[in-house]
C-alpha cells in the first residue's frame, strides 16, 4: 500500500522511518526501537529528521491527548485556513484506525482518504497535513491517543465532515451498531456540502 519509503538517519545516530502513503503528503512514521533487558527506548519525535524528510519545517505548538472506549469515532475534523493544522498522531495505549481525508479542492486525490491502524505496539505515527480532515475509530477496549498540532485550537475555525458520508466510503473496521459519536460529530455536513480548502490558499507558505 505504501510507496516512497526512505530510512533517514540524522547525524546524531537516531533514526525514524518515513513512508509516503498513497496520498503522498500523508506520511507514516516509524520510530526506531532500542530494546534491552530493561525494556525499550525510542525517540518519539525529532524535529530535525522530520524537517529533513519533508524539506520544510513544521513548528508544532500544541500537544493533545484523549482517551476513548471501543467503538468511539472522533472526527472528521479540521480547522479552516488560516487556522489549518498539521497533526502528528500516535497511540499510547490500545489500537485505532486513523483516517486522513483529502479536502484540497483541486487535488487529484480530493475526497480520497488514507486509513492506517496505529497502536501502542507498532508505535507508528501518522502525519496529517493541512488541507485534510482527521478522524479515528477505537478498535481496542480503550485507546489513549496523543497528537501534536502546528496551530492552536481555534473553535471558530473548527469544521467537520460527516464520518459516514457514503461518498467518502470509509471502512471504519467496526460493526455499525458499536459506533459512538459526539452530537457535534453526528451533525457535520457531507463532503458535498462541507467547506473545503481553496486551491488558491497556500497552506504551507
Ligand atoms: C480539540 C480541542 C478541544 N478542546 C475542548 C473542546 C471541548 O470542550 C472538549 C472536547 O472537544 P472535541 O469534542 O472537539 O474533542 P475531539 O472530538 O477529540 O476533537 C479532536 O478530534 C480529533 C479527531 C482531531 O483531529 C483533533 O484535532 C480534535 O478535533 O475539549 C480544547 O480545549 N482544545 C482543543 O484543542
UniProtKB/TrEMBL annotation:
Single GO MF descriptor: dTDP-4-dehydrorhamnose 3,5-epimerase activity
**The keyword Isomerase is assigned to this record:** yes
Any single biological process term in GO: dTDP-rhamnose biosynthetic process
State the pathway, as annotated in the record. Answer: Carbohydrate biosynthesis; dTDP-L-rhamnose biosynthesis
Q: What is its EC number?
A: 5.1.3.13
Site Participates in a stacking interaction with the thymidine ring of dTDP-4-oxo-6-deoxyglucose: list residues.
153
SUPFAM superfamilies this protein is in?
RmlC-like cupins (SSF51182)
Q: What residue ranges carry the coiled-coil annotation?
A: none
Q: How is this protein annotated for GO cellular component?
A: cytosol
Keywords, sorted A to Z: Isomerase
- Transmembrane region positions? none
- Which CDD domains does the record associate with it? cupin_RmlC
Stated role: Catalyzes the epimerization of the C3' and C5'positions of dTDP-6-deoxy-D-xylo-4-hexulose, forming dTDP-6-deoxy-L-lyxo-4-hexulose.
Q: Which family does it belong to?
A: Belongs to the dTDP-4-dehydrorhamnose 3,5-epimerase family.
Q: What is this protein called?
A: dTDP-4-dehydrorhamnose 3,5-epimerase
Q: Which organism is it from?
A: Leeuwenhoekiella palythoae
Amino acid at each position: 500500500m505504501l510507496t516512497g519509503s526512505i530510512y533517514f538517519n540524522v547525524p546524531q545516530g537516531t533514526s525514524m522511518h518515513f513512508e509516503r502513503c498513497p496520498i503522498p503528503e500523508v506520511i507514516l512514521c516509524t520510530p526506531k526501537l532500542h530494546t534491552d533487558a530493561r525494556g525499550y527506548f525510542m525517540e518519539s519525535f525529532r524535529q530535525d529528521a522530520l524537517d529533513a524528510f519533508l524539506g520544510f519545517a513544521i513548528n508544532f505548538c500544541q500537544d493533545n491527548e484523549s482517551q476513548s472506549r471501543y467503538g468511539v469515532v472522533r472526527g472528521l475534523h479540521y480547522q479552516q485556513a488560516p487556522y489549518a493544522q498539521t497533526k502528528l498522531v500516535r497511540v499510547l495505549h490500545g489500537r485505532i484506525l486513523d483516517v486522513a481525508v483529502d479536502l484540497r479542492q483541486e487535488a487529484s486525490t480530493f475526497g480520497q482518504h488514507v486509513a492506517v491502524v496505529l497502536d501502542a505496539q507498532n508505535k507508528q505515527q501518522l502525519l496529517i497535513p493541512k488541507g485534510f480532515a482527521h478522524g479515528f475509530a477505537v478498535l481496542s477496549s480503550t485507546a489513549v491517543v496523543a497528537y501534536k498540532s502546528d496551530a492552536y485550537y481555534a473553535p471558530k475555525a473548527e469544521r467537520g465532515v460527516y464520518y459516514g458520508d457514503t461518498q467518502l466510503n470509509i471502512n471504519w473496521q467496526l460493526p455499525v451498531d458499536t459506533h459512538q459519536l459526539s452530537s457535534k460529530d453526528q451533525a457535520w455536513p457531507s463532503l458535498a456540502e462541507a467547506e473545503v480548502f481553496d486551491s488558491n490558499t497556500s497552506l504551507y507558505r
